[in-house]
Amino acid sequence: MRRQVRRRAREDFALASLHPVLARVYAGRGIRDTQTLDLGLESLLPVGSLDGVEPAADLLMSHRARGSKLLVIGDYDADGATASALMVRTLRALGFESVDYLVPNRFKFGYGLTPEIVAAALPRAPHCLITVDNGIASLEGVAAARAQGLDVLITDHHLPGAELPDATAIVNPNLPGARFASRSLSGVGVAFYLMAALARRLVLPSAAVAERLDLVALGTVADVVPLDRNNRILVHQGLRRIRAGRGVAGLAALAVTGNRSPEGLTAGDLGFVVAPRLNAAGRIDDMALGIECLLADDPARALAYAHELDRLNGERRTIEARMQDEAQAIVGRLGYGEPGAALPAGLCLYDEAWHPGVVGLVASRVKDQVCRPVIAFAPAESGLARGSARSIPGVHVRDVLEAVATANPGLIRTFGGHAMAAGVTLKAQRLRQFADLFAAEAARRTDPNSVPGLLLTDGELAPAELVLETAQALRAGGPWGAGFPEPTFDGEFAVAESRLLGGKHLKLWVRAARDAPPIEALVFDWRARATEQPAPGARVTLVYRLVENEYQGRSRAELMVEYLEVRA
Fold first, then answer.
1. Residue 517, preceding bond cis, omega within 30 degrees?
2. Could you tell me which residues come within 8 angstroms of residue 421 by beta carbon, excluding any fewer than 6 positions away?
3. DSSP string, 270-317
4. Is residue 409 part of a domain?
5. From first to last of its 568 residues, what are the pLDDT tens digits of the chain?
6. Exposure winner among 120, 282, 462, 512, fewest CB in 10 A?
7. Is 271 in the same domain as 184?
8. The CATH number of the domain where 158 resides is what?
9. Could you tell me if residue 317 is inside a domain?
10. Is residue 525 domain-resident?
11. For residues 389 and 369, what is the distance between their CA atoms, to the nearest angstrom?
């Protein structure tokens, strides 16, 4: 698909002390002064300003005084795993006598605090259940727990439905009428704020909780929540601790298995190297393995867990590659890429052989290809189909699901999520009906004036700026991520040399000007994007990231290409 490239509008603010390219990038993200770039802990939003955090801290203090058994109910993704590990580690460190965790197996129980999970928790005789990264939609599960005389403390960041569960206490920045200045906290971010409030009650220094900001950084990046200033502080401070060797052993081990040095870890490494290995446990097996990795203090034990997670991640990649090929075939049968063909405004894909733990990755890849919301479904228990949705800017996919559910009572069993990602479960036999309704509702919510697949860039780099110093300045200017995107640039280049790597990736040497030295450019998964390989002498338009490539102790600048178009 040919993409339209547009450069971000920006005003020039007083950022003269910065590298000129970084100053331009910041200006394109609305940074008006260097004070906004202060990512010190003292600039975090006040702990007590998070809605519900004080009553929740009261509840925990009462259970601490009684020596109660606490059971943390997690989620099976990286955000849920880091939140579970942070909560268990911190509660134990703060003197709670009995703290354990239980994470639902996605293939047996599904998502959240269900009545089935409550039943599984009862043999452990807990006095209080604490949800992390889930629970705000768990009306039946909370009711089942309260009927057994248990307190339920919900910590979550997902959008609530029309009715809130009857929990003992709820901490969630997205409750109706919430006053917290950031709606973008991840599940682990909410858990961190609660633990910080608890430490304050116990008159402990902030370092008692801040030392686990490594877990907050990982979960925040992995969940792709917008990196507003508050989240950038959390991620920045977490990365500082990891680089200084003060992170948990399991996180460092996961980085090592991905051939990354913890001392040089970036937010991008957390998202593309560490998080996939942690997520593999929940996608393929049981997230308890990932949580145990993050709870391990012995480096050898942590590394053993990390190697098993790395093996599962390899299995996940194999399954995903097969499913991606099958998804491409489905999209092809819909006529994508043919002259005059028009896809629905929202796509639903289903295959009886698809793995339920990998459908979200399939939806994300297809969404990037067709530039519209996509839900990929896999079969579930009792004739159900469970789907994972990924959306595009401007189409709030959870609101789409809510609109379909409201207009068609009984069609959707369960749903929940965010603007950009959500989950949904319904009867498999009603998938076709749902797909039509989903497409129609997505069409109603898609701006007809929007440009599908629009690529926003930070402009063009001059040949003299395509150097290692610029790449290093951009790397140091992070953390980059959702809502604060990593800088991309566009420009026209002449191809000096072109070759395929492994039959699927494209490596180029390109020149920005006739007398400029060639610079390496890498296009991952070229075969999945196009068939025409640019020949030496061809002119190409590239949208790219300028990165530092370290190999055998030497560093050089390199272009990581996100879009390539051969000029006519």
1. no
2. 224, 360, 388, 389, 390, 391, 397
3. IIIIIHHHHHHHHHHS-THHHHHHHH--SHHHHHHHHHHHHHHHHHHH
4. yes
5. 678 899 998 776 667 788 999 999 999 998 888 888 999 999 999 999 999 999 999 999 999 999 999 999 999 899 999 999 999 999 999 999 999 999 987 777 777 899 999 999 999 999 999 999 999 999 999 999 999 999 999 999 998 988 999 999 999 999 999 999 999 999 999 999 999 999 999 988 777 789 999 999 999 999 999 999 999 999 999 999 999 999 999 999 999 999 999 999 999 999 999 999 999 999 998 999 999 999 999 999 999 999 999 999 999 999 999 999 999 899 888 866 555 457 889 999 999 999 999 999 999 999 988 899 999 999 998 899 999 999 998 899 999 999 999 999 999 998 888 888 999 999 999 999 999 999 999 999 998 777 778 899 999 999 999 999 999 999 999 999 999 999 999 999 999 999 988 778 899 999 999 889 999 999 988 766 656 789 999 999 999 999 998 877 789 999 999 999 998 6
6. 462
7. yes
8. 3.90.1640.30
9. no
10. yes
11. 14
Determine contact, residues 202/501, Cβ cutoff 8 Å: no
Q: How many CB atoms lie under 10 A from the CB of residue 166? A: 12
348: domain range? 334-445
What CATH number did the domain enclosing 381 receive? 3.10.310.30
Is there a single domain that holds both residue 506 and residue 473? yes
Q: Please count the helices (runs of H) and the strands (runs of E) in the chain.
A: 19, 17
In this structure, are 268 and 364 located in the same domain? no
Asked if residue 521 and residue 407 are part of one domain, the reply reads no
Distance CA 455, CA 141 (A): 43
Domain CATH number, residue 461: 2.40.50.460
Q: Which helix (H) or strand (E) holds 561?
A: strand 554-566
Q: Are β-strands 384-390 and 374-379 bridged in parallel, bridged antiparallel, or unpaired? A: antiparallel
Q: How many whole angstroms separate alpha carbon 4 and alpha carbon 455?
A: 6
82 shares its domain with 108: yes
Handedness of CA 465, 467, 468, 469 (dihedral sign): negative
Q: 205 and 116 in one domain?
A: yes
Q: Which residue is associated with the tokens 């005084």?
A: 65
Domain count for the chain, please give it. Answer: 3
Last residue of a domain, one of 387, 411, 445: 445
Do residues 99 and 241 share a domain? yes
- 387 and 305 both lie in a single domain: no
Identify the domain boundary among 445, 476, 500: 445
Q: Please indicate, yes or no, if residue 105 is contained in any of the structural domains.
A: yes
Ordered DSSP codes for 132-194: ES--TT-HHHHHHHHHTT-EEEEE--SPP-SS----SEEE-TTSTT---S-S---HHHHHHHH
